[in-house]
Amino acid sequence: MAIITEKEFKLLSEFIKENYGIHLKQEKQSLLTGRLYNVLVQNNFKNFSEYYEYIVSDKTGDAVVTLIDKITTNHTFFMREAQHFYYFRDKVLPYLSNTVKDRDLRIWSAACSTGEEPYTLAMILDQFFGKEKLCWDTKVLATDISNKVLEIAKKGVYSDEKIAPLPSHWKTNYFKKYDDDNSVLVDKIRNEVIYRKFNLMEKAFPFKRRFHVIFCRNVMIYFDNKTKEELVDKLYEMTEYGGYLFIGHSESINRDITGFRYIMPSVYRKEESNVPFGFK
Fold first, then answer.
1. Are 21 and 201 in contact (CB under 8 A)?
2. pTM of the prediction?
3. What does DSSP assign to residue 28?
4. When comparing pLDDT for 191 and 70, which is higher?
5. 6-71 in CATH: which number?
């Protein structure tokens, strides 16, 4: 079994940090070896130096996506950190429905993984607006760095075990049987989510308009403080005044150096002076 040397680990970890923001500490050296071992075997690489050269020379981008998939955990499920979704439904949507004058609701699920988060948002939006939804643009933008998880998300097929925690009327109204063990989301919900590949480490975000709500959860756990602060600054710029940022429960933002105001654990807001009383 090929063992990664300190020099090889430095090369790989610096490449990953510079391009994807993920900070691999020295103690992750053996973990990196274990997770990438099969990739080396399958491609007949003798050592991690050959693997590094392969990654940096691959023009398709597939090699680096495989690398990121191996070193991160695409673990997600429907209604993960459910308090966020309840707050979104009970506090955020009532405010936005009364204040967004052009009825163009812009919601971004960053690092959407296999789609459970944006589809949950789409179902909440459908239930909240009901018949009035026809008058609104409520499509959810969902991005991730991995083509692999985006392809899974686009299909909208989930095991019956995965959707078991969802409300029964959601399962009845928003899913149909796919096969004996799986169900698929109906087109009405699948079409409400727009999937795009996107790297949160891009220097400039390409979006033309700011978002009313950003879910960027369980991403910054991979970043060091500097990278996290830089990302939060960019998210702040991409948030409408009065808009909300949701991060993971195991994450936090340094309130001394951000414009976001703390609302509750892992929920922040970009304040504006004319927010109606009762929504602060």
1. yes
2. 0.83
3. G
4. 191
5. 1.10.155.10
